[in-house]
Amino acid sequence: MYCKNCDHLLHDNFCARCGQNAKVDRLNFPSFLTEISDSIFQLNRGFLYTIKELFTRPGHTIRDFIQGKRKNHFKPIAFVLTLSTIYFFVSQIFDNSTLIDDFITGYSDGGDEHRLKASSSSILNWLSNNYAYTTLLLLPLFSLASFISFNGFGQNYLEHMVINSYITGQQAIFYSLFMIMGVIIKNEDITVLLAVITCFLFNCWAFSQFYLDKKRIKVISRLIISYFLYIFFISVFLIVLTFGLIKNNRNRF
Hints:
74% of the residues lie in helices and 0% in strands. It is mostly helical. The longest helix has 37 residues, at 216-252. It has one domain (31-252). Helix 8 (157-185) runs antiparallel to helix 9. The model is unreliable at 111-119 (pLDDT under 50). It contains ten helices and no strands.
């Protein structure tokens, strides 16, 4: 048996060359729970290495991680939490709104009923003020959307969680850089638009590299379907959440 990280011949429970555990299975629910625990309570190595790899070969490096080459990579949940937190801090430093702020503001302004706004204001404020955790909460929705859209391509739902964790974390770097650029050139509307376009193109690049054996047009079309499904899932989530709060308030009175 050979190490999935460095292809060295294994003679023990750990690789003698790179130190990775000899048993690296396909991602499943128990291993994913361990991944979350490690991400939140431990500092993992490879942060700058992972950023560099995702800048130069995003789809390939994510596929490497899923296939077992995990020793040098920063864990995906820790990665998205760390970079989302940095993006939020950048927005606070420059007194700018994040994309989630803008989306929540638009949703809140769209509520015609005063009760709708009043009932949902507390939870919406929490989502807005806790960007990193909101990103983590929304990841399962986009992963569900991409899992459905790419059905039949060979990856399970948790593997889509890994793919989207790395992509979302890397996108937070783009959002941070464009936010700083907007402050410098004093034109935030253009830089926000450029950030959204850049992140979409990065997503297309990453998925196209990941599914290198598939036609690019097929991959990108399925990714676009993922975005539409994601918007639908978020809308349903917010509607259910809002009306659940309204019903709860009515029962209290």
